[in-house]
Amino acid sequence: MAAGRKRLQPLPALAEKNNSGQWVIIAPESATNLPKKPGSGPLFTKLRNPSTGHAALYLFNSDGRQLFEVKAFHEEYRSWFIGQTVQQDGCLFFATPVDPLFLLLFYLTKAEKEQGKFQPLNQILVDEECSSCAMLLKCTSVSQSLHHIADEKEIGGRKFYKYNEEKTLKWLKKKVNQTVKMLKVSDIRVDGKVQSATFISGKQITDAAEEDYICYAHGLISEYILEELSTALAKYLQLPQIACPPAEPASKKRKLSDEPVEAKEDYTKFNTSDLKNKKANNKISAAQKALAKVDKSGMKTMSSFFSSKPKAMK
Fold first, then answer.
1. Of 103, 151, 188, 208, which is most buried, counting CB atoms within 10 Å of its CB?
2. Are strands 158-163 and 85-87 parallel, antiparallel or unpaired?
3. How many domains, the chain?
């Protein structure tokens, strides 16, 4: 399906357009179901990335009860043929479900730092740049799971909430444990070794320690929480002081991200021919350095061997 790059409109209206602003995106069927009410539909909008606080692109399904994060995979020199047109921007976008409680957690911790008191959610979810954050309250899992990260009080028929770090850490630990189970079931390597799935032949990987799984899962969950909370979670999980390796090395530029990813590294430097040339250049440089130390007194210059011979006198 296609969608305009910067226009935050319901998806069906954007899908009808076939211009340079369209996208190619892979999304679950639940994200693109036809709306039950006229005039509604899937909605691309800006929300706060819960780990950085920066505005990023998200997608609400047609009834607004499920949230998806939009990631982009970008490779240079890629384009798409869409109908009778060529889409020059070859980014491939992915929409994957995300727990809206992570995004709500960002606002709760912010309110705790600024106010430190019980407040109604409509006062906590106030954001001029990302006004759609109020839609998070419509998501099904929010009302059912809010007690995992906040204390609740009811006064005069109104509910007030306040961030609770102890509850949040318990909830995040459950998330880590669930992630560990999925890593084991999926036979995903977490011990830093590289092994192709082609040579596994259905054999389950068991050489990784339990701590490796927990550390790796912690890294995955940390992509959805603030750094200070990630540090507190590491202590709560009793992980070693040594920094856990991230789920993917930061130096790898070909990855999923909130914005189209551009390769900033020159990958041609890894070509075999370039490596041979680089080694040859290193050898020449070493020889030149050695030659510079030789006593050249009485030696002819190289150019003298190629100069024209003097004419004989008649």
1. 103
2. unpaired
3. 3
